[in-house]
Each structure stands twice: as C-alpha cells, then as structure tokens.
Amino acid sequence: MLNRFLLLAILFIGTTALSFGQESNTQSTEIIPIEEARQQSLGTYVTVTGWVTVTSEFGGPVYFQDETGGLAWYNGDLMRNDGFQLDVARGDSIVITGELGEFGQQGGTPGTGLLQIVGNDVEFEFYPEGNRDIEPVEITEVELNSNDFQGQLVRINNILYNDAGSLFQGGNNYQFQGQTGSGLVRIEQRTDIAGLEIPFGETDVTGVVSQFQSTAQLLPRDRDNLGADPIPGDDVPMDQTFDVVTWNIEWFGSTENGPSDLDIQMNNVLKVIRTIDADLYALQEIASLQSFEALVDSLDEFSGFWAGYSQTQNTAYLFRTAVIDSVNSGQLSTGQNSFDWAGRLPLFFTFDATVNDITRRIYSYNIHAKAFGDQESYERRVNASSQLKSFLDQFRTGDNVIFLGDYNDMLTESSFGGAPSPYDNFVQDENYYTITKSLEEAGAFSFLVGQFQSMIDHITVSHDLIEDHIEGAQRVDNVQSYVANYTSTTSDHAPVWTRFDFSRSLVSIDDQIADRPSSFELEQNYPNPFNPTTNLRFTLPESSNVSVEVFDVMGRRVATVADNQQFSSGSHTLTFDASGLSSGMYIYRVSLAGGESLSGKMMIIK
Predict the structure, then answer these.
(1) Are 318 and 246 a contacting pair, CB within 8 Å?
(2) Domains present along the chain, CATH in parentheses
C-alpha cells in the first residue's frame, strides 16, 4: 500500500512511476497521468491517481481528476445495482488500476462516448488523508464541446437556459446559450435536482463534463451546482407543517399485474414513505389488503385504512396519528355514479389535523378516476368530476377540502385529443385551488414510463387551505434519485406532494366554530323581481337535510328546488329557474328536517 508521502507526491507531480499491485492480466501497473491514460487504446489496463469529484450523486460513474485531466470509473455492482457501496467523499484521493472502456459511443466509433475504467477486476484504494478541495475550471461553451475537458469538474458562467421557468426533470438534457455558443446541461435521475425551477436570466453552472454519442454534456452534481432557487418551504422543518402526498403504487401487493418481487416493492415503498416523511398519504392501486396491513404495521407512527372495493384496485389512506385525529371515513356515494368512477367511488376521510397547536377540520377525497384516453373514458371522467364538485359545492361550502389522487387526466387539457380537462370545473372556480396545475404547466410528469409520460396525479384544495398552502412547495418527488430501478421494482407513478403552514391564516377549529351562524336564516331572493332566474339564499347553524319549494298564491306547489338534501352549516345559494311559470307573485319556503321552516315572497315579471 502506498504511504501518504508517496501518494501525495504522485498526486501533485503526476509522473512518478510506482507499482502497487498486479492485475490478473499481468500488464504493467505503473502510475501514469490521466492525460496520458486518455491517449491509450480501449481495452488497455492503466493505473492512474487523482482526486474524486463525483461520488454517489449519479449512482455511478465515479469521476476523478489529477492535474492533467479527468476520468470516470463505473462498476454497476459497487455503485448502482445494490445502491452505492463505496466509502468515499468528494476530494478523497484514489489510486486505481483497470481497463479502459467507453460508454455511449455513436455507431460503435471510439472517441464518441465517455471514457471510463470498467470491469469487475479493478483494483482501487481511497485515501481520505489526501483529501483536498477541487475547484472547477472555468471554461467556455466552445471548450465544453471540444471534448478537451471530458471527465473534469468545470464551471461555465453567464449562461441562459432555453427552457427557463420550466422544471428540471431527471434524465433530460437542457440547452443553454452563452457568450461563445450553446451547450447542453444533463440532469441525472439520481441527483436532488429534479423539480427545481430552471432559472431565468444569466446564471452559472458547475458540473463534470461527459459525452454521449458525440455530444458533450455538462452534468451538475447537486442543487448548489446550478444556482437554481430552492423549493419554497424546504427551509421549514417538516414537524412545523402539514404535508400531504398522493401516490399511485402500481398494483401494490400483486405479482400478477405489478412488480414481480413483492419484498422489494414493500421495502421501496417503506423507504419512500420514510424519506418524504409526510403526515397524510392518499394511495391508489392497492391490490392486496394483506400487503397494505403489513405496510401499516411496519410504520409505528401511522395508521391507515382502505376502501374495500369489490374490484382489485383499491384506494387507501396512511396517516400520522400524532398529527391526525380521525373523525369519519367511507366511500362517498351521495350524488355519485359508480360506473363513472370505474367502480372506485371517492374514499372520503374527515379528520382534525393539528400542527403547532393549530387545528384544521379537513375533508379529504381520495380518487382513482377512470383510465384511458378514449372518448367514453373521457366522458366518464367528466361526469365523475361534475358529480363530485356538485356534492362539494352543496355540502362542503366553507369547509377545508382536499381532493387528491390519480385523476388519470391533466388539468390544462385532456389526454383525449386536447379536449377541455375533465377537471376544468375545479380549475375555473376561484373557490378551489388546483395546486399541482403549475407543475403540469412547467412540464413535470408524475406518470413516468413510455410515450405517455404525463402529469395525471393531482391535489386540489379549498377554503382556508388555499391560504395555508406554501406556494411553490408542490412537487413530483424525485424518487428515482434514491430508489434504484424504481419504475421496474416499485411503481410507474411518482409520489406528488405539497406542504401547508396552518399559522399563515391562524384560524383554528374553535375559531371556525365561533364563526358559524347561530341561527337558521332566510334572506330575500335576488334579483327580485326577476326573469327567468333568481337566487335563493339561506343559512344553517349546523348540518341538516333541507327542502326548498315554491308555491303560487293559491298555495299550490309549483316547483321543488331541493328535496330533503343534506347541507353543511353555513350559507348556501340555490338558483331557481322560473322559465315554466307565468308572471306573478310566488312564495318560496325552506324547510329543515326537524320541521322548522322560513318563507319569503318573490315576483316574476315577463
């Protein structure tokens, strides 16, 4: 083994010839500068030394450089297949012997890919005592594209991204313009960068230089390398906020339809839940009650329940018991057509969420809407969305609603031929806030595989939760950065989540109760006189079944506006259409289930 003095001499001089071991191929292990190693033919065994600039950020390769150049080293077993296995930090010294190979060649032509040390018979040693800070070399766009700096840590100043304002996505390239030309920034899936907004204006970018099929790429290692703004709220501890996730776990617990290894899927699901560390998880595609119960049992701080549909895909909730106090739950059937919901009626969960001694009464609706992009499926989603909104408008006015899940469609337009979104009724209503619409507009996607990558998992809220929301905290979780082979082992959807700060509006449940009306009241209809429609307004001190009827002056009932329908406490407005009635005086009456009623007079003029 090299002693520290000799190692440092090698690293700083780069030309000392030593031997530290013998490879099975019996080739020389004389240490040479990286620049010289890069001139050797592919398949040659070389021994080089340098300082590490990239460790686990990409899940391999590791990048390192000396005073003459840079090089990569890739070994799937050590770096990716079972997670990153190497104990190394940025700046540590490395001495390594191995075969030269090239990844990402164009048409099999040498020199068109990334030069790296490959194979399973590599000998290496890290030396933390030789650690040093590696400063990036400032280069231009022309120098980036020349391939002269491949494998090295560099910085390019004052660039402008073509896609400014969109979100960085893992596995994508982003073109930028600079003082001497254009270039590409490559965002690797395993970094923590995905979900950050692409900066506007001139900015600097740091990364290592790679090449794929003759195209140079600059690979930033983390958020600090980009100069991008942090995600809002990330500086606020999770125990100070209420955090909500919707996640379609592909056929969770079913090897017949989902991932083939249930143990790996379970372990990865647990890892995701513990990594995000949210308070409420609305889940879809739960295919096994046994697996779901095992999941709940594995999470000491959580409880949960599932819908229990007759079909094999169920929705479910997981919730942190220290934050959430359950009030009521079940399948929502009032005003809903099970066929339009593909047999999966909304799973409602009423609960009190308490953070920092502030409590919100919240009504959550977890959905898994009808899938596919054909017209019939689209129309079923339209109908289902309309049914749910009609229920919420009638029974949850003034309440804190979270409507979340696998919408199976987008919010800006539908997957069915660009038709209006089935959820446009929520998008266009100022009483609702479609939190995740901005992610869709920025180019994010929650369905991760194939040609149908899209943003179809969403969160919508109402009332005080609109003000409580930390704007910009919404994100598609960059789950592929910490779960290996995520889409094949765990799910084809990524979790989508966001955060709420109850202290923003400082309205507790006690305040909400105090603000509730103390008596049953009926206001004068407006407009009055009218033709042909008017609004009937009434206020309830508590939830009640209500009938609203219209009579002529002879006492004959001529219309029924509401027939023993349930309304929540608070103010309500119903529209009455008198197109079929003649001019004259009429009486409208609002009756409660307990027998109390109030009446008013209105005039139709035609």
Answers:
(1) no
(2) 4-130 (2.40.50.200), 137-225 (2.40.50.200), 242-511 (3.60.10.10), 516-604 (2.60.40.1930)
